[in-house]
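User: Please predict the structure of the protein below. I'd like the answer in structure-token form so I can feed it into my own downstream comparison script.

Assistant: Understood. Taking the following sequence of 153 residues as input:
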Amino acid sequence: MGKKAGARDAEIILKLYDLRREPELRKARNWWLWEFFPRNSDDFLKISSAPGTPENNWLRQGASYWGMAAALVLQGALDEELFLRPACSGEMFFMLAKVYPFLEELREKLGDPEVFRDVEKVVNSTKWGRERLKFVLKRVEVLREKKALEAKG
């Protein structure tokens, strides 16, 4: 942090917002937020190993979008404090929270220690981000349980 967000940061945030309005990314965001509730790494791997399916496309598109945005912050191209505001990256916290409980196992099974690494680094880079993740983890667990109950009947 340290510097105050400027006009260039605002331009990048607005461009990221504009990209989120793209129709296929909207589908991916909706799927990540409201339909995809993996309980473990195998639930994630089932989708990630089904190329050509809409779910596989959405999994990759949502994860890569937020990974790209986080990389901009980590490389100093975008102000961290501005980016971490819920209006700018709230969905990123939900995406991470959905895989966070089994993230290390997922990285191990994929053989890729970098999976979700940039998102995790940005979220954990501030006390506020760590606290926000704890809050969102609780919300996601409630939603996960609700989704499981709906699936039962």
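That's the full token string. The radius of gyration is 16 Å.
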